[in-house]
Amino acid sequence: MLVIGRKVGESILVSDNIKITIISLGGDKVGVGIEAPKEIPIMREELVETTLANLEASEIRQKPIEKDLASLFKRSKNK
Question: Does pTM surpass 0.85?
Answer without folding.
Answer: no
